Amino acid sequence: MKILALNCGSSSVKYQLYDWTKKQVLCKGLVERIGDGKTHAEAISGILAMIADPETGALKSLGEISAVGHRVVHGGEKFHGSVRIDAEVLAAIKEVKDLAPLHNPPNIAGIEAAMKALPNIPQVAVFDTAFHQTMPSYSYLYAVPFEWYKMYGVRKYGFHGTSHLYVSKRAAVLLKKEPSNTNVVTLHIGNGVSVAAIRNGISIDTSMGLTPLAGAIMGTRSGDIDPALIIFMIEKEGFYAKELDKILNNKSGLLGITGKYSDRRDIIKAAEAGDERCRLAIEMEAYRLKTFIGAYAAAIGSLDAVVFTAGAGESDPTLRERVIDGLEQFGVRLDKNRNLAAVNKKEELISADDSSVKIFVIPTNEEIVFIEDVVAILEGRYKAGADYKYSFESEDYAP
């Protein structure tokens, strides 16, 4: 059984072809600069052509593909787990695209392109929001008129669910515990950033909200702000909703603070050269993440581990050190040498020997979550929220 996982972003398509029988990645890659003279349909057509190339392809023909798994960022309240895509499901995904206007449209474009190119092959949607559907109502509801929730679905949904699920399962393996008895705080730190509180293997809270704009400071996204700030700026500058949306999503965060950089590597370099706004951006980001760890540790009650993942989480030891600094009183102690050495895209323990809470760097692997769910659906054993064993809980699945 060979499964193709597709992750369609606004300007890229990430793919992985996996042989389920052999438990082997056959090929993977990334197509970039979509929108710059190239559509999602063209990108997927190119990917399929490479996969089935007579001389260099991983497959003899596209007919060897058993199914395609698609990342879909927002499933609203309708989807509590992965689902096989049909016309009704696709229509429902389109209905909630306003909740993730930067993400769902390219996800939809990828689905439609794949369905057209592979019309007889099952397509499955795997939702970023699904993992967080276990949050209790006191965690996901906002203190606004309750009718907003009933009428428009206004609530916290959370994102990066497949990443938080994967690294929390891997943390359980490294801790030699059952996922259902594992309590962790996971930090997905890329251009987008989210933190999750995972108690007994399930999400009870997360930093992103109705949309992926809320929570931690991100590359170009503001994260949490005083809601009255929006009203204040409308009164001061006369902004329209679309203008503010663009500012908060594309011109804020690290870019807004520094005035010129969203890439943390550039920010660190400039800070070391004496740029005070870059130094401030580093301190603000680390402080915000630290407060989430503290708050979520309190919500969980007893913490086994803190996990860093995604781009900066996996490769930026300076950021990790700043985030952990000051948490020693809670039993979270970093080993600086281990931390500095953990930049090789491998699972690493970076906590000190006397740390009562373990600290891990675990490279994320969202595609294997797509593949697991697709196979479970094809085999008729998938049930959202069920505690069936993911094969990547095995030590053999360590990246």
Q: Overview of this structure, please?
A:
By secondary structure, the protein is an alpha/beta fold. The protein has 2 domains: 2-127 and 367-394, 2-Layer Sandwich (Nucleotidyltransferase, domain 5), CATH 3.30.420.40; 177-361, Nucleotidyltransferase, domain 5. 39% of the residues lie in helices and 17% in strands. The chain is built from 15 helices and 12 strands. The chain has helices spanning 40-51, 87-95, 104-117, 137-140, 146-152, 161-175, 227-237, 241-250, 253-258, 264-272, 276-300, 310-315, 317-324, 336-341, 366-378; strands at residues 2-8, 12-19, 24-32, 65-72, 83-84, 123-127, 184-189, 193-199, 202-206, 305-309, 348-349, 358-361. The strands form 2 sheets. A 6-stranded mixed β-sheet has the order 3-2-1-4-6-5, sandwiched between helices. Strands 9-8-7-10-12-11 form a 6-stranded mixed β-sheet, sandwiched between helices. A hairpin with a 4-residue loop joins strand 2 and strand 3 (24-32). Helix 1 crosses helix 3 and helix 10 (264-272) packs across helix 11 (276-300). The longest helix has 25 residues, at 276-300. It is globular and about 55 Å long. The protein starts with a strand and ends in a 21-residue tail after the last helix. 43% of the residues are buried.
Order of strands, main sheet, comes to: 3-2-1-4-6-5
What general form does the structure show? globular
What is the CATH fold-level name of the largest domain? Nucleotidyltransferase, domain 5
Would you state the CATH class of the largest domain? Alpha Beta
Mean pLDDT comes to 90
Radius of gyration, rounded? Answer: 21 Å
Derived from helix and strand composition plus strand pairing, the structural class reads: alpha/beta
Largest sheet: 6 strands, mixed
What portion of residues is helical? 25-40%
Q: Which residue ranges are poorly predicted, with pLDDT under 50 across at least 5 consecutive positions?
A: 395-399
